[in-house]
Sequence to fold (863 residues):
Amino acid sequence: MAPDSVEPINGAETAGQRLEGSPGGMAVSATAPTPAEAPAVGPYDEMYDSDNTPRATHSRLLRALDRIGPEGILERGRLRDAYLDQQGITFTLSGRERPLPLDLVPRIIPADEWSQVEAGVKQRIRALEAFLADLYGPQEVLADGIVPRRLILTSTHYHRAAYGVDPPNGVRLHVAGIDLIRDEAGRFCVLEDNLRNPSGVSYVLENRRALAHVLPEVFIGHRVRSVEEYPERLLEALQAATPRGVDEPVVVVLTPGVHNSAHYEHAFLARRMGVELVEGRDLYCRDGFLWMRTTSGPQRIHVVYRRIDDDFLDPLPFRFDSVLGIPGILNSARAGHVTIANAVGNGVADDKAVYPHVPDLIDYYLGETPILPNVETYDLQDPDQRSFVLDRMDRMVLKPSDASGGSGLLIGTKASVEELEATRERVLEDPRGWIAQPVVTFSTAPTAVDDGQLGPRHVDLRPFAVNDGNDIFVLPGGLTRVALPEGSLVVNSSQGGGSKDTWVLEDEDASVGRATGRPVRRVRRTPSSGISRAHAPRPHDDRQRQQEGQQQQAQEPRGPRC
Amino acid sequence: MLSRIAESFFWIGRYIERSEATARLLAEHHQLLVEDRTVPEEVACAVLLDSLSLPSLRVEDAASLVGAVIGSTTDASTIVGATSAARENARSVRDQLSGEVFEALNATHIALSRGMVYAASPGVALHRVQERLLTVNGIIEWTMSRDEGYLFLTLGRSLERIDMTARLLGVRHDQLWSEGGPVATLRAAGALSAFLRMRHPLDGDEVRRFLSLDPAFPRSLRACAEQAERSVRGLERMGSSDGGDLLREVGMLRSQLEYVVDPSAADVDALCARAQVAAVRASDCAARGFFHQAGTIVWSH
Fold:
């Protein structure tokens, strides 16, 4: 923990005392860093309100966990580890396959809060789609001065090669993951957009299954919205993006290969969509079409859901040394013979230096106010803002603007003097390459810690959205990542983050016909076939059994016969 | 081969299959019941017990459902009961079985009856049961000669598989749980990946069609009927015949499933019911034609 992180979360001590007295003996206590330039309020805790009363939405969960107790939690933790290991639900970190740590305490998002998130995510994606279509087309947004032209032209992810590639149904963001946090007031804010290859959705489905497998008790009394339909929705969206004039599109998932950190997810999605998982060497372009090598000859491919970065996708316009890509695929896409999902060049819209402009884009393209606000962000190309940030670097988070996954991130409160100094120099050298944000104390949620007790840990949320051109589907919940080390604010799985099963509860009023939930089902009982079970005739009836036994007894005293 | 021995092989095949298929069905049903609480718990319990022909008295929640279906040695329709019945049959033909098969089956029976597969969560325990039974099946496949005994075992397994697949389809997970239901039915048959690769739309009717009529998936009704027919023909080649009734029964079923033209969802349901009846009749034919149960003759003066 940083030395200045001494502020307890709201009433943590009292919460701790009360919990220790409860049968499960779960203690809650933690501290969190003080946010920069903000009054010393603690993070929003998702289980306890400011009076240290469990929120109504969490009371059942708390009772269930209490009944299981710390010993029980530890035991279930062992079952979970065995299960995840055996299922091979892993990600690869520095060359080693390991299971994504799944916390046993689910995260609950009540129906009304979720409907806000859902609406906000949809709104943001509609605006970002319009922005990308504009950037790779008429560029009115630049002409109107909403976003500085220099910002776009200097973005490493703005690809001229993608200019004029017109996706068949207008969709570039087939899949998007919007990273959200909750600020001190509990409001969901957008931390960053992931518009290239957002990963983690397989863990959403697997986490649900794993939790129900090892800890079924916590589900009692909760109506949790299902996440099972994601692969179907994704396949439908990919099929909807097929080139014009194709009735039965062939969709594939393109993976860099088994050594990629997200290979598990690529295989999962291909399997659950029932499509082929291919590598670059399985494909080739000829006559402007994309083909797959099969035992029955070449087969044409219409839609590629690629999980491979732009730079490696096509060695002709991009990195010529790429051995993972398919030469000519971008030209096939330009000719309208194949759809690449997500589209090439999306990275310009999730460039961190573009992020501060997204609220303006929502206004510009949709004429709406953002439902989900941004986190305050400083533009380091502006001399005033830059000097403001450099004066208080120890209270800022600095992020490289073109990176993802928390790499290169500097947390001022945790950094050494040398690290601060080194970053300062890099910022002065390349202000375009960095953005700064105040340290945001994002919300905490109860998490099972080493001894089976519960402790608050910081969480974020990545909802996944799928755009099929008509509608944007937001998977209920999404991936909650949790910073497992106490006080840590970094949730990335590459840096010690774990995940949580994320529950969006059905609207309680759903039974009276509100649109957000499903009614309690009236079940029509199918009459059983009435066919009774066949059974083996009892091999020995009682009398025979008795007599067999007597024979044995009679023989025993005789001893071995010679 | 002695009739008594043949009969034991037949029932070893049936009971191992019953135990394993029941464990898988229970695991998936329980998982759905836990994850998606839109279906009243007591209804979800009753539906499963009904389809397994188990009494539904005093079973109202997920935990008591698991207890009832895991069951005990007294009811051979439960997981413990079927495993124990398989082991009893194996004991009486122990000299004819490979040592490994008896050992694995016996170990499974012991583990179940002594609670060694117990785990804090039913899902984990059921997974362990399935692993053990799958091991038994694997050992049968690679240690048993393809002789008469093996053919009786596979005949029993195929007929039980028809019965269990029909019972699984009778649960109608898709009607109970519109989102997770079709996937759960497929998982309970181990057919999720096989189904998805066929690019069928994932809905209840398609799932039932697949599990009834697919020619390639080994647990479809059609594949089981084919396997049963192969076993009966194999027995005939080895000189064991019941005079043709059994072959007629399984062969007719196989051809109905194989040559049905463009079946509607209702046709599939009818075929499924027909298959279950045919499996009962085939089992009766086998008992009459091969096993000749004499019963215990008691002389009384």
Chain B has a mean pLDDT of 91.
